[in-house]
């Protein structure tokens, strides 16, 4: 009886996740360095928190279900405590600050970059794992800390190469919206879930427009795929009040603030929020950021419940064309706000806090469209070819590659099957190697090494039309003395870099 052949395991990338290659990762490193340098210019310092936190620390635990799955990936550890992959970088920071409160300087100014995870339905441009880069000030009660972070967000955009006029930092205050909630009868803990639904609805204004938001404020909305999103259940009068707040923006900050004062005239908390916006507007003006870089905009409503004061978003305003030629905008690439109650969940005292988060992947895509962040050309290592496999020859090749590395030249000895020399050169080509080092027994006896310039070889190969000419020309290959290997490779690499620089400038 024939033995049953076992089925091969199918290689599958999980939905909502992506693999990233070296060129994208190097481009990301360049971008992250610019953000890091900007944050440090403002006095922020790095900190790192783990990707897993206890689920209750993230504020996502649902006690009426077997698994806390409201947007997070969760598991139980060996003592049956629920842990979840972090949903954002702010809640883990709040836990870190509370746990180390007595040892940290106050205000505590930190930044951190890392991947966050969302247990949500993936879609085009919507991933379950993505990177954020945050900066937070904890222990500063004045909205001057919020204003400073908005200015830093503006500086970050411009340092990344986004021109003034192609972005805007929009600023609002959740206290003003809380005042609107009082007016329509949604104040109090018993209405917390409906308030959150209202916030999430308004947060979609730029994507769905006024009528789409109105549906979400009412009974709900069905999207193009047929999926239905339940609404906040507001009646028409209450929805009109919310939309009037969202559309209260005027040509000047003073005009917007006057409109907001009229809307929440009967709300103490709303009036407090308006005055905070007025203070921030004055600070923007004093620092020179009221020239269109930073705007007071009531349509900004961050969708998370823990915001307690000013909220802000970095929005890209330039248009690009999609594959069908239709104009599209990247929209928000970062945001944040004040969250005075988040750290306080762990403590018996209020801890005022504010922070900003950059959506790294989305901002990277925008920078590539602008030509500010192209994929990096990955120049591979110098490849030392292996002509003989005896121990003496291998030792010789290993000494050769170590000489190159000692001189700071990225290099490797070919570790595959050396029987077909052409395969070694094909390998070097695939690695985008600048050159290959070739030495057989005859070259060794002559005290010489062949260096094959693979970059020049590619160029010349385009001009050679037949194999006979190719074999006779041996393009871009030359002999050097063994003792001059490092010197000649360095000379070649320098020449190649000069050629690349000329191409970039032309």
TrEMBL record:
<protein>
    <recommendedName>
        <fullName>Histidine--tRNA ligase</fullName>
        <ecNumber>6.1.1.21</ecNumber>
    </recommendedName>
</protein>
<feature type="binding site">
    <location>
        <position position="136"/>
    </location>
    <ligand>
        <name>L-histidine</name>
    </ligand>
</feature>
<dbReference type="InterPro" id="IPR041715">
    <property type="entry name" value="HisRS-like_core"/>
</dbReference>
<keyword id="KW-0547">Nucleotide-binding</keyword>
<keyword id="KW-0030">Aminoacyl-tRNA synthetase</keyword>
<feature type="binding site">
    <location>
        <position position="118"/>
    </location>
    <ligand>
        <name>L-histidine</name>
    </ligand>
</feature>
<feature type="binding site">
    <location>
        <begin position="88"/>
        <end position="90"/>
    </location>
    <ligand>
        <name>L-histidine</name>
    </ligand>
</feature>
<feature type="binding site">
    <location>
        <position position="302"/>
    </location>
    <ligand>
        <name>L-histidine</name>
    </ligand>
</feature>
<dbReference type="GO" id="GO:0005737">
    <property type="term" value="C:cytoplasm"/>
</dbReference>
<feature type="binding site">
    <location>
        <begin position="306"/>
        <end position="307"/>
    </location>
    <ligand>
        <name>L-histidine</name>
    </ligand>
</feature>
<dbReference type="GO" id="GO:0006427">
    <property type="term" value="P:histidyl-tRNA aminoacylation"/>
</dbReference>
<dbReference type="Pfam" id="PF13393">
    <property type="entry name" value="tRNA-synt_His"/>
</dbReference>
<dbReference type="InterPro" id="IPR006195">
    <property type="entry name" value="aa-tRNA-synth_II"/>
</dbReference>
<keyword id="KW-0067">ATP-binding</keyword>
<keyword id="KW-0648">Protein biosynthesis</keyword>
<dbReference type="InterPro" id="IPR015807">
    <property type="entry name" value="His-tRNA-ligase"/>
</dbReference>
<dbReference type="InterPro" id="IPR036621">
    <property type="entry name" value="Anticodon-bd_dom_sf"/>
</dbReference>
<dbReference type="Pfam" id="PF03129">
    <property type="entry name" value="HGTP_anticodon"/>
</dbReference>
<dbReference type="GO" id="GO:0005524">
    <property type="term" value="F:ATP binding"/>
</dbReference>
<comment type="subunit">
    <text>Homodimer.</text>
</comment>
<dbReference type="InterPro" id="IPR004516">
    <property type="entry name" value="HisRS/HisZ"/>
</dbReference>
<comment type="similarity">
    <text>Belongs to the class-II aminoacyl-tRNA synthetase family.</text>
</comment>
<keyword id="KW-0963">Cytoplasm</keyword>
<dbReference type="InterPro" id="IPR033656">
    <property type="entry name" value="HisRS_anticodon"/>
</dbReference>
<feature type="domain" description="Aminoacyl-transfer RNA synthetases class-II family profile">
    <location>
        <begin position="30"/>
        <end position="381"/>
    </location>
</feature>
<dbReference type="InterPro" id="IPR004154">
    <property type="entry name" value="Anticodon-bd"/>
</dbReference>
<dbReference type="GO" id="GO:0004821">
    <property type="term" value="F:histidine-tRNA ligase activity"/>
</dbReference>
<feature type="binding site">
    <location>
        <position position="132"/>
    </location>
    <ligand>
        <name>L-histidine</name>
    </ligand>
</feature>
<dbReference type="InterPro" id="IPR045864">
    <property type="entry name" value="aa-tRNA-synth_II/BPL/LPL"/>
</dbReference>
<keyword id="KW-0436">Ligase</keyword>
